[in-house]
Amino acid sequence: MHSAVYDPKNHSIVDTDTNYGKQFIFVIVAVVLGIFILLLESRVLSALAPAIYTITTLLLILVLVIGRNVGGNRGTDLFTGRL
Question: Quick one: which of 3, 59, 77, 82 has the fewest CB in 10 Å?
Fold first, then answer.
């Protein structure tokens, strides 16, 4: 990531003003979450599976209700509030 778009003005790898800084933070967060999920007991994930399934299904239905057409696709960005 860093070497492909190196900019001498922004030499910090965690600078969120650059794409590689955002990517680096995403990779670190993803690795930490992945390790956390791997360390969970399978009973916890089995117990949470119905709730996770219900929430994701409701979010998909919500996109159909409040989403907008962009380039022929219906979508929304629920995390930033952009509809």
Answer: 3
